[in-house]
């Protein structure tokens, strides 16, 4: 079974042991209007698929994976190699950074500017080319981020910070600098969809929370900290580049739109289709009622609805549901 190629909020990959066996095998078109990371879409078996989401960046990523050109695969590999290169690059300046920690103990830094200058002299020894084989933007932008993150780490230390902890804090700052620098690359207007899609897969693997964070229209995640230092995107890469995924996406239509536009297509009403509806908590009550009415009267398709056990959907759909299965605090409702 394929894993997901992107880390995304609301993934059902850990629930597949329950959900997977409930999905019919004789499906003409599998329809998922809230695709997210597509865990259940990837597990389903059908002749055709239609997936949608309202997040344009996510759908752009799906479409990039769908065509999966050489440039995209090269960028994913390059980002993985950049992450792996952090270890040796950090080793080249580690002793200098640990020396900074001891200097703080001794009171060597009389003022803030002297601390900043000392950091600059050490971290600027890291060559941009040591980490990035593609010049995404001006190298100075990365070095400024590295100085900033190192300063934050240094200011977290005091006389009680031992050398082992100091090393972890400095190494985490190093990786946070790479992460935040690539966030800035992602947000640059000149960054093309292929680059943004590769970066989105990379950044979501290491983001503090598995959700898309937006601020004034820009992607603003935070690095997840030391627990993410040793994460790898190798499995995400393998899925994104897998022939099995390419075969599935060759018979998949992708849309960026809300659920009701998705349900307006003929394939969402056909008796040989299957609607997989993992209803997000953000969907407002009026929309939940509208969805329930559609499922009761607007389609001949088989459907599965996943929602909280106390959701209004469970009330309105009562009488239409033929089977239900508990899923933690949620319930899986089926009309078959």
Walk me through the structure.
49% of the residues lie in helices and 14% in strands. The protein has 14 helices and nine strands. The strands form two sheets. The chain has a seven-stranded mixed sheet with strand order 5-2-1-6-7-9-8, covered by helices on one side. A two-stranded antiparallel sheet has the order 3-4. It folds into two domains: 13-68 and 243-334, Vaccinia Virus protein VP39 (Rossmann fold), CATH 3.40.50; 70-238, no CATH class. The chain has 336 residues and is an alpha/beta fold.
Helix content: 40-55%
> What is the overall pLDDT average?
92
Assembly type of the chains comes to single chain
Broad shape: elongated
Main-sheet strand order equals 5-2-1-6-7-9-8
Number of strands: 9
Alpha-carbon distance between the termini?
Answer: 25 Å
**Number of structural units classed as domains:** 2
Q: Treating each run of at least 4 consecutive H or I residues as one helix, how many helices?
A: 14
In percent, how much strand structure appears in the residues?
5-15%
**Secondary-structure element series:** HEHEHHHHHHHEEHHEHEHEHEE
Poorly predicted parts: none
Radius of gyration: 24 Å
Q: What class, by secondary structure content?
A: alpha/beta
| Largest sheet geometry | 7 strands, mixed
């Amino acid at each position: 079974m394929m894993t997901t190629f992107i880390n995304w909020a609301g993934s059902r990959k850990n629930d597949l042991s329950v959900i997977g066996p409930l999905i019919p095998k004789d499906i003409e078109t599998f329809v998922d209007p809230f695709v997210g990371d597509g865990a259940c879409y990837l597990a389903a078996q059908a002749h055709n698929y239609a997936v949608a989401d309202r997040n344009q960046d996510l759908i752009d990523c799906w479409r990039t994976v769908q065509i999966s050109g050489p440039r995209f695969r090269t960028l994913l590999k390059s980002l993985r190699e950049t992450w792996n290169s952090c270890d040796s690059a950090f080793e080249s300046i580690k002793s200098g950074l640990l020396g900074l920690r001891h200097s703080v103990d001794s009171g060597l830094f009389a003022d803030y500017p002297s601390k900043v200058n000392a950091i600059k002299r050490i971290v600027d020894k890291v060559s941009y080319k040591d980490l990035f084989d593609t010049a995404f933007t001006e190298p100075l932008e990365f070095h400024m981020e590295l100085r900033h993150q190192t300063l934050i780490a240094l200011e977290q230390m005091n006389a009680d910070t031992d050398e082992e902890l100091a090393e972890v804090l400095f190494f985490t700052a190093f990786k946070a600098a790479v992460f935040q620098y690539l966030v800035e690359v992602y947000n640059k207007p000149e960054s093309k969809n292929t680059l943004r899609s590769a970066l989105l897969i990379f950044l979501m693997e290491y983001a503090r929370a598995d959700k898309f964070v937006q601020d004034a229209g820009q992607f603003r995640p935070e690095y997840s900290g030391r627990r993410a230092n040793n994460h790898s995107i190798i499995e995400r890469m393998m899925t994104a580049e897998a022939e099995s995924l390419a075969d599935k996406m060759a018979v998949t239509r992708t849309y960026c739109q809300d659920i009701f536009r998705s349900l307006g297509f003929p394939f969402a009403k056909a008796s040989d289709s299957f609607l997989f509806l993992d209803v997000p908590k953000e969907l407002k009550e009026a929309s939940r009622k509208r969805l329930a009415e559609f499922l009761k009267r607007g389609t001949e398709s088989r459907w599965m609805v996943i929602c909280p056990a106390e959701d209004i959907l469970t009330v309105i759909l009562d009488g239409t549901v033929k089977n239900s299965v508990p899923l933690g605090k949620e319930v899986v409702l089926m009309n078959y």
